[in-house]
Amino acid sequence: MKRPPRIRVIGSINLDIVARVHALPRPGETVSGGVLAHYPGGKGANQALAARKLGAEVALFGCVGNDSARDQALALLTSNQVDLHGVKVLENAATGVALIAVDDQGENQIVVAPGANALVCATTLADMTGEFDATLCQLELPVETILYLADTLTGLLCINLAPAKVIPQEVLNRADILVVNEIEAAFYGDQLHGSKGLIIQTLGAAGAVAFQNGKEIARGTSPVVTPIDTTGAGDTFVGAFIVAFLSEGSVANALAYACAAGAAATLTAGAQTSMPNRDQVAALLGNTA
Q1: What pLDDT score was predicted for residue 288?
Q2: pLDDT, tens only, 153-178
Q3: Residue 71: partners with Cβ closer than 8 Å, 6 or more residues away
Q4: Cβ partners under 8 Å of residue 182, min gap 6
Q5: Which of its termini does the chain have fewer beta carbons within 10 Å around, N or C?
Q6: Which residues pair with 14 in a beta bridge?
Q7: What single string gives the DSSP state of each residue in 257-272?
Q8: Separation CA 125–CA 281 (nearest Å)
Q9: What is the DSSP letter of 176?
C-alpha cells in the first residue's frame, strides 16, 4: 500500500487523571505523596493517535460531554490532525474520565468512569461512511454497540478485546483481527480460538505472539527498555500493529514494529503524551536488529 493506511477508529475518549506514587495501594490502603497530572486518554482516542503518529490517516468516532474535560481530552488529537468530525458532543453527559495510579516501576492501576462513552450507540454515532482500509474498536463501549458495529460494518475489522467482558461469539467470529493481553486471553479461553480470525496476544516485556486456527504463526520480541510509565503502551501496540499490517501485509513484521512502538511508549509519562513517532520506533527497531 503506497498511500498511508486509512483507519476508522470507533471508541472511547477520556481525560486521564494520573497520580504518580512510590507504590500502588493495596486494598484498603491509603498511599500519600502522589503527584497529580491530567492527560488525554481513552482506548479509542489513544489508538487513533498512535496510528496517526505512525503515519496513518485516521478518523475517530465517539462521544464526549459538553464540559471542561472535553477540550483537554481532544487536545492532542486535534494538534495531530486526527479527523474528529465523527466525535459527537452530548449535552447531558460528562466526558469520560480515567483515574490512574502509577508507581516507581511504571506499573499502574486504572478505574474508568465512562460518561459519554457509555452512550455511544447506533443513534449517537455520527455517519461512519467513507473509504477506509480497516476499522478498529475496543470494549470501552457498550457490548450492544460492538455487536451493532460487527453486524453493520464491512471491510477489515480489528477488535481490541479490552477491557475483557462477556461478548457474543458472533462478534469474535466477525472480527478479522482480535488483540488481547494475557489476562484477556485467559478470560476468553476457548471462545477466543474458536474464531477464524488472526489472534494477536501481547506478552508485556516478552513481546507478542500471533495465532490463527489455534496455531502459532509468528512471534515478536520487545526491545529492552527501562519503563517510566506503562500507561498507553498496549494501545500504542494496537495502533502500531494495524498500521504496519496494512502497510506491509506481514504479520511477523507488524508484530516486531508494534512491539518496538509499545516499548517506546513506556519511556514517557502519560498515555497519549507517550505515543512515539516513526523515527522513535525505527530507532528502537534498529537497536534490536
Answers
A1: 55
A2: 999 999 999 999 999 999 999 999 99
A3: none
A4: 201, 202, 203, 204
A5: C
A6: 41, 96
A7: HHHHHHHHGGGSSSSG
A8: 33
A9: S
Contacts of 282 (CB under 8 A, 6+ apart): none
| Residue 175, C-alpha cell as written in the block | 472480527
CA gap 277, 104 in Å, rounded? 25
Residue 29 belongs to a domain:
no
Write the DSSP symbol of residue 105. T
- Determine the Cα–Cα distance for residues 198 and 167; give it in Å rounded to an integer: 17
The cell numbers describing 17, all together, are 487523571
Cis peptide before 163 (omega within 30 of 0): yes
Pairing of strands 96-102, 108-113: antiparallel
Q: Which residue has the cell 485516521?
A: 58
Phi and psi torsions of 134, nearest 5°: -160, 155
- Please indicate, yes or no, if residue 195 is contained in any of the structural domains: yes
User: Of 104, 151, 235, 279, which is the active-site residue?
Assistant: 235
First to last CA, the chain: 24
| Domain extent at residue 68 | 6-22+35-288
Q: From CA 76, how far away is CA 42, in angstroms rounded?
A: 12
Does the residue 28 lie in any domain?
no
What pLDDT digit, counting tens, does each position of 119-160 carry? 999 999 999 999 999 999 999 999 999 999 999 999 999 999
How many structural domains are present in the chain?
A: 1
Q: For cell 501485509, what's the residue?
A: 249
Amino acid at 83: D
Q: Does residue 166 belong to any structural domain of this protein?
A: yes
User: For the domain that residue 10 is a member of, what is the CATH number?
Assistant: 3.40.1190.20
Q: Known catalytic residue: 83?
A: no
* Residue whose entry in the numeric block shows the C-alpha cell 450507540: 121
